[in-house]
Amino acid sequence: MTRVVLAPDSFKGTITAADAAAALAEGWASVDPTAEFVHRPMADGGEGTVSAFEAAVPGAVRMPVTVDGPAGRRIETSWLLLPPTEDAPAGTAVVDLGSTSGIELLTELRPWDADTAGFGQAMAAALDHGVSRLVVGIGSSASTDGGTGMLSALGARFLDAAGAPVAPGARGLGDIAAVDLSGLRPAPEVRVLTDVTNPLVGPRGAAAVFGPQKGLRTPDDIVLVDDGLRRLAALLGVDPDGAGNGAAGGTGAALVVWGGVLAPGASEVAELIGLAEAIAEADVVITGEGSYDGQSGDGKVPSYLAGLAAEAGTRAMVAAGRITEDADTALFAASASLTELAGSSDAALAEPARWLREAGTVLARSAAA
Prior knowledge:
The chain is 37% helix and 20% strand. By secondary structure, the protein is of the alpha/beta class.
C-alpha cells in the first residue's frame, strides 16, 4: 500500500490548498485505489494560512468576525482558534491578512486607499477572546500602508502636523508627523509568517517591488510611498533595511514594532502541522502551487517540501497551474502542469479541480512506471 502525503499550497485565486489536496487524492486513487492519503495542505503565510491550520489541527474552530475590508466595505471573515497547549494555555489564534485585508478581496486595485485595518480588527477580536499566542500570516496584501491600518485597529494613532488623524492607506503616509503608541494594546507572543525577506524601503523595498502589483503606476508614485515609509520607520524606530520589514506593504515592520517575530512562513506552518513527521512515514509527497517558476525556490512551499522529502528519503512530486522553463523540476521525481494537461492556461484556471484530479492520475502512473 502506498502512503501519499498531500501538501500543496493554494492555487491563488482559483482553489484552496485543502481542495487541491482532495482533487489530487481523487486522481491518484483512480490509478491506485489502495493508497493511503495524509492531507497536510500547506501555506507560507499568504492566502490559505488559516485553512491550512484548520485542516491539520484537530479541534481548531473558526471564529467569525466582521471587519473593514480593503475595498472600503465591511466584510464577513474569520480567524482560527487552536486548542490550548502547554505553551499557549488559552489557545492560539491564527489570523491571515489575505482573508481580512488581502488583494483577492478587491474587484479593482486601490493603491492609495486600501489599508490593513481589517487585519488589525481580526487580531483585536482574537485578543478580546483572551488567546495566549497569535500566529499571523501576512501574504497577499492589498495595500502599502506600512501596517498603519493594523496598528490603528490595535490602538495606535497616526497624526498630521495639526494633530489630526491622517487619511488611511498609502494616501496618508506622507502626512504623518507624529505617532502615538500610548494606546497600543500589549502584544502576546506573536509569530509572523512570511515568505518575503525584502526591506521596507529602497530598490528592493515594499513600494518598489510590490507597489506596482497593488496599483502604484508611476516612478513618482513609488518614490512618494517609499519616502512615506522611510519617514514612518523613523517615527516608529524600526530598521527600514531589516529583512522582512517590507512584507505586506510594510506590515512586517509594523508587527516588529508591536513585538512580533518574523519567521519563514513555509517552515513555520510545516512545523506547526507536523509535516516532517508525516513525510518521514510516507512513500510519496505531492506539493504544488499556482505557478511553479524560478522564484519558487526562495522559501516557497514546493522547494521547502522538496527539501523535507530529500531528508526523509521520500519521493517528491509537484503539480502546478503552470511550470515555467526556469523552474527547478530536478527537485522532483515527477511533475504535472495543469496548463499542459488542459491545453491552455484559461482552461486550467476555469476548472482547477478537474485538472488537479488529472494531475493526480498522471503522477500516480509515473510512480507505478
